[in-house]
Design goal:
135 residues, alpha+beta, Gyrase A, domain 2, three-stranded mixed beta sheet, three-stranded antiparallel beta sheet, 4 helices, 8 strands, globular, disordered N terminus
């Protein structure tokens, strides 16, 4: 389990660095265009087992990264595991209700359905969390 979480963190931490973000107003959703050349994994609010939650990936070291923790439903977690197995060593786009919320590079398959999206600012994380919380 610990290895899976560490792998997941490594996989999704690059999402903050890999965004091709147009300028956005503070607190607005990052504007990432859907890129047909990248594999897409789509999910909706009904695919989340619990509501999205903002946190950090550190323990107060001063270098903590702002993250959104997601837990996918059992069925969607199985789809993500299969998808990431098929797209290991590729950059993907995570699409929530037709909007790209992250562009992580997949280093290893993601199993268990726990996903951590990293952001460069609290405002961006809050905008994505609001989107993920809308039903």
């Amino acid at each position: 389990m610990k290895i899976t979480i560490v792998s997941l963190v490594l996989v999704l931490l690059v999402s903050a660095c890999s965004h091709k973000v147009a300028s956005t107003a503070p607190g607005s959703l990052p504007q990432i265009a859907v890129d047909a050349s990248k594999p897409h994994f789509e999910f909706t609010a009904s695919d989340l087992a619990v509501p999205a939650e903002i946190g950090t990936n550190g323990v107060g070291s001063g270098h903590d990264t702002i993250v959104i923790n997601l837990q996918l439903s059992t069925g969607k977690a199985a789809e993500l595991a299969k998808f990431t197995q098929e797209h290991t060593n590729q950059q993907i786009q995570l699409i929530f209700d037709s909007k790209v919320v992250a562009e992580p590079f997949v280093y290893t398959p993601i199993t268990g359905g726990a996903v951590q999206l990293a952001f460069s600012s609290l405002a961006q994380a809050q905008a994505v969390e609001r989107l993920l919380s809308e039903k």
